[in-house]
Amino acid sequence: KKAMIDKRLKDSPRSTVLVAEDDPADRELIRRALRDRDHPVKIVHDGAAVVEYIAACFRPDAGRPVPGLIILDLNMPRLSGREVMMELGRSPITDSVPVVVFSSSDSDSDVRACYELGCRSYVVKPTDLQPFLTALNGIVSYWLDLVEAPPLRSH
């Protein structure tokens, strides 16, 4: 099993953006913001779907790439963004795939807790359309086009 995980990590193109957002209006804005990017975007509706997606990346028959970036809303059904980060902390991708929280919450306790759980950035969702689109494109550009991520490794 470890050899299979090592191969999946090594062979992944790491360009996919995995977004977890439960609000239909925000999902549509995210699609709109990222539609012309060179990176494929996978949007899921809740936190549990993120954990399921990541687990599926490591199944032998997956054919699903390990994402290069995970963008998480905080307040979602089934599993919250915080709970997702706790689960991802047990995953072999944790060290190499940045998790960015994109939330309407500007609470100091949320920000602190998310950084303690391993998020790499915390961005408060702008309420106006153009800043919302600009923020999302900035997140993707920074993490997938500018930053050189460390190699993926299994645990």
Looking at this protein, list some descriptive labels.
single chain; about 160 residues; alpha/beta; 5-stranded parallel β-sheet; 6 helices; about 15% strand; disordered N terminus
In short:
The chain is an alpha/beta fold. Helices cover 43% and strands 14% of the residues. The chain has 6 helices and 5 strands.
Mean pLDDT: 83
Distance between the termini: 11 Å
Structural class: alpha/beta
How much of the residues is beta strand, in percent?
Answer: 5-15%
Uncertain segments are 1-12
Share of residues in helices: 40-55%
Largest sheet composition: 5 strands, parallel
Compute the number of strand runs.
5
Order of helices and strands: HEHEHEHEHEH
**Gyration radius, rounded:** 15 Å
What is the helix tally?
6
In what order do the strands lie side by side in the largest sheet? 2-1-3-4-5
- Overall shape: it is globular
What does the model show?
The protein has 155 residues and is α/β, with parallel strands linked by helices. Helix content is 43%, strand content 14%. It has 6 helices and 5 strands; from the N terminus they run H-E-H-E-H-E-H-E-H-E-H. It has helices spanning 2-11, 24-34, 47-57, 81-88, 108-116, 129-146; strands at 17-20, 41-44, 69-72, 99-103, 121-124. The chain has a 5-stranded parallel beta sheet, with helices on both faces. Helix 2 crosses helix 6 (129-146) and helix 3 runs parallel beside helix 4 (81-88). The protein is globular and about 45 Å long. The termini are close together. 32% of the residues are buried. The model is unreliable at 1-12 (pLDDT under 50).
